[in-house]
Amino acid sequence: MTPAGSGRAWLVVAGGVAAAVHVGKLPPALPVLRETLGLSLVEAGFLLSLVQFAGMTLGLIVGLAADRLGLKRTMVAGLAVTGLASLAGGFATTPAALLGLRALEGLGFLLASMPAPGLIRRLVPPGRMSAMLGVWGAYMPFATALALLGGPAWMAWAGWPGWWWLLGGLSLVMAAALARRLPRDPETAVAGRGAWASRVRKTLAAPGPWLVAFAFGVYSAQWLAVIGFLPSIYLAAGISLSTAAAATAFAAAVNILGNLAAGRLLQRGVPAPSLLAAGYLTMGIASVLAFSDALPESGAGPLFRYLAVLAFSAVGGVIPGTLFSLAVRLAPAEDTVSTTVGWMQQWSALGQFLGPPAVAWVAARVGGWQWSWLVTSGCAGLGLLLAAWAARTRETRSH
User: Fold this and answer.
1) Residue in 37, 114, 60 with CA at minimum distance from that of residue 82
2) Closest Cα to residue 58, out of 305, 390, 271, 349?
3) CATH architecture of 1-190
4) Are 185 and 18 a contacting pair, CB within 8 Å?
5) For the chain, what is the radius of gyration of the CA atoms?
6) CATH 1.20.1250.20 residue ranges for the chain
7) Which of 62, 88, 104, 161 has the highest count of CB atoms within 10 angstroms of its CB?
8) How many other CB atoms are found less than 10 A from the CB of residue 391?
9) What are residue 104's phi and psi, to 5 degrees?
10) CATH fold for the domain made of 199-399
11) What tens digit of pLDDT does each residue of 159-204 get?
């Protein structure tokens, strides 16, 4: 494949970041939005998670439909929808309007992100595909860190509507760049409705897709809940918005390390269930240390709490990288890999939809964040059970 093909693959990654930055743009804006629009804590939780509504309901369908519509056309359309919804969101004056546009942003994000791995596979040579897909796997934490770092400074200058307009414009620019630079979608035969139904039936009748789907759901629920509310937690502790956003951005960025490490460890023969167990166990213990009263409020306590958050994100990052590998291996047939990944993404979105409101509800009930670990550690406990299920599945397949 030519250097131009590799450059276009990097452009696809950049397009994914331009879509994913809309997921991460909200946490630094939440304190401002709660003040200007009068959002309750639970409304703020749903605002965090509504961007995942489309993925929660349509992930499997979009995974099937992208091949029919064309991968390039689907990604360009997704960036356009996300950009236009964000531009409109900057004019919102009520929580209901912002919530509705947030859901539309989620649809655009889903359309933009689902075709990207297929486009990368089309654009790069086989020898570079794994490495490039590993780079793609880190697009979400990178976009989240970027939004958390840039958001406070931009909002201080242009307000939260200006932040919405800036990122909406970025998505539209990337949509135009992809439309111009990517090669045209190939003309391929379109599978009929019967073939689609057969792929869905095979996927949902097998245990493997359910395993990776549940595992991704309980991971994403706790990760977004912690990273999403971290700026608000730090502000409540008297830390400035810029410092809180920078600390949260770094916590999101270290998740990239886990994603990249998962691929290397799997290549060296570390069993996938062991990586999953290590990730979930670390997330469970770290969330207890970060949010409970186990560490003191003064002295070295805050530093150790932050180190626990970093461990939560960094070691937890091995989970998504491992699950993408498992999804390919546990798909019931070669023609169900994409639907298995789509099903996994759908449950990931469900976890991200439910996790932040659950943590917000607990915090609202007890008047603080000290019991948030009940939700996150509960998710981690379920993850450990799923890791054990994955180990049994692996043993069965090895015999």
Assistant:
1) 114
2) 349
3) Up-down Bundle (1.20)
4) no
5) 20
6) 1-190, 199-399
7) 62
8) 16
9) -65, -40
10) Growth Hormone; Chain: A; (1.20.1250)
11) 999 999 999 999 999 999 999 999 988 765 445 555 677 778 888 8
